Amino acid sequence: MPDVRADRLLTINVVEPLHRAFRVNISARIPMLMYHGISDQLGDRHPYFETSTSAAVFASHMQYLRDQGYRALSVPVALQMLADGNECSRTVVITFDDGCRDFYTEAMPILQKCGLNATLFVVTGIADGHPHHFGNTKFMTWPEIREAAQSGIDVGSHTVSHPKLHSLSEANVRRELEQSKWTIEDKLGRPVRTISYPYAFPEEDPSFRSSLRHSVQQAGYTYGLTTIVGRGARSCDQYFLPRLPMNQHDDLRLFKAKLEGAYDWIRGPQAIYKRLGRLSIKKSRAVIAGQA
After folding, report:
1. CA dist., res. 49 & res. 28, Å (int)
2. Could you tell me where the DSSP H helices lie in the chain?
3. At what angle do helices 170-188 and 142-150 cross, to 10 degrees?
């Protein structure tokens, strides 16, 4: 049985029926799925925040896409389809953040079996063997990343060291963006157009968004992917594209609902949660400053 959780209950029992009743058009948006690790080892966090997906559940997702006739495209190709006004009801973008080794050992064989492609966002410093802060997680090496790219996997940047960009100076943000792009291009011999930003994206900070947009443009990227919940559309900012979080708790019914847009409503509560968190941080800092 799927875990009982408010977001699933509302999606399945309220939003999805309303979409059917009002015949909501799903062909003008493309779901961009966000996976991380393919592993049976789950955390103890709320299902919404889980980042692992077992190989069995991931296989069921990919088999569903194959059986329903979905085509999995790269971010640039999918966004060009939207820009051209093409019908996209059976189009999906499959992304993986971090470059965990289980992408190579578990996800790739499943993708190949189902005839689907994906985009892999790698942390170049970790791939180079530099120390990291992800516990016992194993990551892909450059030969493995190169093999994935040669098999058709699109490779993008997930920065050099997986930092919280919001906490860095503009100069250090630029370094993370530029050096990771240069490294991937040097290692793989192909241009890098996409980047996925680490951690929860601070959409509630307009100043940071403006600064980051400038840095991303100057570094030579065309698209940026966030953790903002939603599906890609022509109206989306190409540097701050939304995605749909996927994990072990996404049974096929919820998976289907996410593909068809019934989960997009989460964007509202997500934005409110982030704003409240930001206000709480500001209040705490003000109290500390007053006590200093």
Report:
1. 28
2. 6-10, 16-21, 55-67, 75-83, 101-102, 108-114, 124-127, 142-150, 170-188, 206-219, 252-259, 267-291
3. 70
pLDDT (tens digit, 9 = 90+) per residue, 42-62?
A: 878 788 889 999 999 999 999
Residue type, 211: S
- From CA 226, how far away is CA 111, in angstroms rounded? 23
Indicate yes or no: pTM above 0.90: yes
Q: Enumerate the β-bridge partners of residue 119.
A: 95, 154
- Name residue 108's amino acid: M
C-alpha triplet 49, 55, 61: angle, nearest 5°: 75
CB 244 within 8 Å of CB 33: yes
pLDDT at residue number 195: 98
Provide the pLDDT for residue 275. Answer: 73
- DSSP class of residue 13 equals I
